[in-house]
Amino acid sequence: MTDLLFLGIDHPAVAAEDVAALSDWYCRVLGYRRWFQHEKPVWMLQAADQTLLEIMPVDQTHRPDRTTWTPGWSHLALRVADIEQAIVWLDTHNVRWGGDLTNAIGGGRVRNFFDPEGNMLQLLERSPRSL
Known about the structure:
By secondary structure, the protein is of the alpha+beta class.
């Protein structure tokens, strides 16, 4: 019964110091498009595969330092077709890398990086045989 109720993840959300600037970065650098704007201000962005990402304003809570193993939601993994091409593209946008290219858990290759506000992202390339 639950497979008919729960279809998957609709969207992750990230709280931003500057909602407009961070939304611009996700659109310009990672290829999202603006899908819906709420007056709060909140932007819902849409990726090429139709998945959504919410960018919303922060509250006054202090941002803790994070690693991929820090408790709680850790990072947003972005699947790419060619990880080397994605790395070259992101290098042209001067992203801050969070480590080297390594083998991904479950197969494939992965590399961590950060958006302009310090949120951890991953590039993830999976081979068809690892899915």
